[in-house]
Specification:
Helix content: 40-55%
Number of domains: 2
CATH topology of the largest domain: Aminopeptidase
CATH architecture of the largest domain: 3-Layer(aba) Sandwich
CATH superfamily of the largest domain: Gcn5-related N-acetyltransferase (GNAT)
Shape: globular
Strand order of the largest sheet: 2-5-6-8-16-9
Oligomer: single chain
Length: 380
């Protein structure tokens, strides 16, 4: 019989570090990367704790040992209390850590019931439940119809003998565009690509990548308020520094393309359990038509083949650019479980009806007008 605890105090949260890390090492797979202690604790300290969120970590123990850790926070939006997984939009997949030797589904059912009894909220929102997540079956039964779904495009490298075989599987147009990008960059200067750049300082890589990303977003009238913020910058630098120094756990991987002595495209990726997550990428916007981002993506995938990585995950959402590299991937679902009348209004009226219309109207505006209105967006 499991004993459950709801951790809400920061001192108790800190005290979980040892058993949290042990459970992650023993039972956490690639899809639980975003529930690693380093990721969650740094997110809380650098991003969430400055706001009005409060911790709500569900811990289950058997014979004194942690067999489940499910990290949540309670926040407020428009007067409502929302229960959401830690990591917010900076975490790409929502999940729980569950020991391999227990009945996972039964343990999660108990934890879910305990959570709803223990935390007062108007709605429970999970934005990114991967079809292979520990919690996927639970949400399929208890989450109702998903609000939305997308894909997490992934290249299964083991399906191809090597990079050249993979590239041959792509379209003729894609291969032609890759050659054109290489040639166009080469005409501007000396090009150097590195799919695993260990010389570039972590702080410089993140700063330059975010600068590239900000230029791209601004040109399209997009806010980027999730990742292009000072809090997110501090968070990424902290976790990246830790993972760069890691020897046996999650690792950082920087990919880069240089033109003479300046970087023109940078990618920030993380690896765990022989899976690469291409987390953030950017390129010199002045060279957009040449395609330095395409060249860097090629370098990154080539490096993963060379290093025996089994999966190259481009994360959500699915986009036209990602379809060039792989046709699809597993489904990732957005759930909102209402626990009050206000929660049902939030889910059914705002999220399902009003927010999509606001997004469509905003995206139909010319980029220059979108730039002026970015600060007034209310739909996230």
């Amino acid at each position: 019989m499991a004993q459950f605890e709801l951790v809400t105090a920061e001192e108790r949260f800190d005290a979980l570090a040892g058993e949290w890390s042990a459970l992650f090492r023993q039972s956490g797979g690639a899809l639980q990367f975003f529930q690693d202690w380093t990721w969650v604790s740094e997110w809380w300290r650098q991003v969430a704790s400055a706001g009005r969120a409060s911790l709500a970590i569900v811990v289950a123990r058997q014979e004194g040992n942690a067999v489940l850790i499910w990290p949540w926070v309670v926040g407020r939006r428009a007067g409502m209390r929302l229960l959401q997984p830690t990591g917010g939009l900076l975490s790409c997949f929502d999940d729980a850590l569950v020991a391999k030797h227990v009945d996972r589904q039964a343990m999660l059912e108990q934890a879910w019931a305990y959570l709803l009894r223990s935390v007062r909220c108007d709605a429970v929102e999970l934005r990114a439940v991967h079809t292979g997540a520990n919690i996927a079956a639970l949400l399929h039964v208890n989450g109702g119809e998903p609000i939305d779904t997308t894909q997490a495009p992934a290249i299964e490298l083991g399906d191809h003998a090597n990079f050249d075989a993979y590239l041959a599987s792509r379209s003729k147009k894609m291969r032609q565009n890759q050659r054109r990008s290489h040639k166009a960059l080469g005409a501007l200067g000396e090009v150097r690509g590195d799919g695993d750049d260990r010389k570039m300082p972590v702080e410089l890589a993140i700063d330059r990548c975010l600068e590239f990303k900000m230029e791209w977003l601004s040109a399209r009238g997009l806010s980027g308020k999730t990742v292009v913020t000072e809090e997110a910058r501090r968070f990424l630098k902290r976790v990246a520094r830790t993972y760069r120094e890691s020897r046996d756990g999650p690792a950082l991987c920087v990919s880069s393309v240089w033109l003479d002595d300046r970087p023109v495209s940078i990618g920030i990726g993380f690896r765990y359990d022989n899976c690469h997550f291409e987390y953030l990428g950017g390129f010199d916007y002045r060279l957009e038509q040449i395609g330095p981002g395409r060249v860097r993506m090629e370098e990154g995938i080539r490096a993963c083949f060379a290093q025996g990585v089994r999966s190259y995950n481009m994360l959500t959402p699915q986009t036209a650019f990602k379809r060039i590299w792989t046709p699809g991937g597993p489904t990732v679902s957005h759930y909102i479980v209402a626990t009050s009348v206000r929660g049902r209004i939030y889910r059914d009226l705002f999220v399902r009806r009003l927010r999509p219309r606001l997004k469509r109207a905003y995206n139909a505006l010319p980029p220059r007008l979108r730039q002026r209105l970015t600060g007034f967006r209310i739909w996230g």
